């Protein structure tokens, strides 16, 4: 890590594992880990009622007029608004498009809700809107409805965005963690950890020898290429908050299968590995915004992997492990030294406000 023009404000960083018995919301409740799950299960679900069939996933698969629809919503509060490799506008499109893609659906329409802070420059709002529109065109999705609200100065970070999306799920596609069985192969679409480290480096004015950019991208085309090989993929997940570790733990818990990951097979770029070593982070827990993890039947794994590698967003795809009958609901990693370590569900979050 090279010298910086200003030292990072370590005192402003959020503890990644705040106490769970606090009576108030803390940053960890939004981190995609154990605390997020407890908030949903103990507060929201009892109030809202029954969830869609298939349980809690990135998007809900629902029946409407004889069609199977994927429906998802997401809010984006990232700071800073612009970062290496993207912006909050890109995230607002790609995050929702990817949630739909994890159900096998190609996004068709989005809504966009803008929450603007009083005093933010209109030029900044314009840049965000332009980025959002460009990302939507790239993803092949239309923004067809929206809303704008303004909050008082000091009650926001310039721009917050909510997007909701709908898309059609093709016949024969049934992607959900309950379909995972021992013997399934675990495939990741490429290098992990880029988005979280890119956000942290920009926010805290950290500079590394090699520039690290977010992997923010829409994954609908990659998923279509995979489904063209076989519609019998078992589950897909985009490892955003909580990183690859959170996604694998969620799948293991919902399926009842164990998961074994070969640590050396996980594609971690050297700059991300170096940054994480300096900052005391585990790349498995760092957020991504343009990657997916798939559980694939073993007899289809080679063909699916080849199709992924033929797509620009899957060129770095790799097999990293398998589902097993042992230690049901638990994720373990085989280390390069021959040992085994448990990969727990994160409690809160390592890096706050990454999406």
UniProtKB/TrEMBL annotation:
Residues 58-169 form the PurM-like N-terminal domain. InterPro entries: HypE, PurM-like_C_dom, PurM-like_C_sf, PurM-like_N, PurM-like_N_sf. GO terms for biological process: protein maturation. It comes from the Bacteria. Residues 182-327 form the PurM-like C-terminal domain. Belongs to the HypE family. PANTHER family: CARBAMOYL DEHYDRATASE HYPE (PTHR30303:SF0), HYDROGENASE ISOENZYMES FORMATION PROTEIN HYPE (PTHR30303). This is Hydrogenase expression/formation protein HypE. The gene is hypE.
């Amino acid at each position: 890590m090279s010298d910086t023009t200003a030292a990072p404000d370590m005192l402003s960083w959020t503890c990644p594992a705040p106490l769970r018995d606090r009576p108030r919301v803390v940053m960890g409740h939004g981190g995609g880990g154990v605390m997020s799950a407890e908030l949903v299960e103990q507060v929201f679900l009892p109030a809202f009622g029954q969830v869609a069939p298939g349980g809690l996933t990135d998007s809900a698969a629902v029946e409407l007029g004889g069609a199977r629809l994927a429906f998802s919503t997401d809010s984006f509060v990232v700071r800073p608004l612009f970062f290496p490799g993207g912006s909050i506008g890109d995230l607002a499109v790609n995050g929702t498009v990817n949630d739909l893609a994890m159900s096998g659906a190609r996004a068709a329409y989005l809504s966009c809700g803008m929450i603007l802070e009083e005093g933010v420059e209109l030029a900044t709002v314009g840049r965000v809107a332009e980025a959002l529109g460009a990302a939507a065109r790239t993803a092949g999705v239309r923004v067809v409805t929206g809303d704008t609200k303004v909050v008082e100065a000091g009650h926001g970070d310039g721009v917050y965005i909510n997007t909701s999306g709908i898309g059609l799920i093709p016949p024969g596609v049934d992607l959900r963690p309950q379909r995972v069985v021992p013997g399934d192969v675990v495939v990741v679409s490429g290098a992990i950890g880029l988005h979280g480290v890119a956000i942290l480096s920009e926010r805290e004015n950290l500079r590394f020898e090699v520039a690290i950019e977010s992997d923010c991208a829409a994954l609908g085309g990659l998923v279509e290429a995979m489904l063209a090989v076989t519609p019998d993929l078992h589950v897909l997940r985009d490892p955003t908050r909580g990183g690859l570790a959170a996604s694998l733990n969620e799948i293991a818990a919902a399926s009842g299968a164990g998961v074994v990951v070969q640590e050396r097979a996980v594609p971690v770029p050297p700059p991300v590995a170096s940054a994480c070593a300096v900052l005391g982070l585990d790349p498995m827990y760092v957020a991504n915004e343009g990657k997916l993890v798939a559980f694939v039947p073993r007899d289809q794994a080679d063909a699916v992997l080849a199709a992924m590698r033929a797509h620009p967003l899957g060129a770095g795809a790799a097999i990293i492990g398998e589902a097993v009958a042992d230690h049901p609901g638990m994720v373990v990693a085989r280390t390069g030294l021959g040992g085994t370590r448990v990969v727990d569900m994160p409690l809160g979050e390592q890096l706050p406000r990454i999406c």
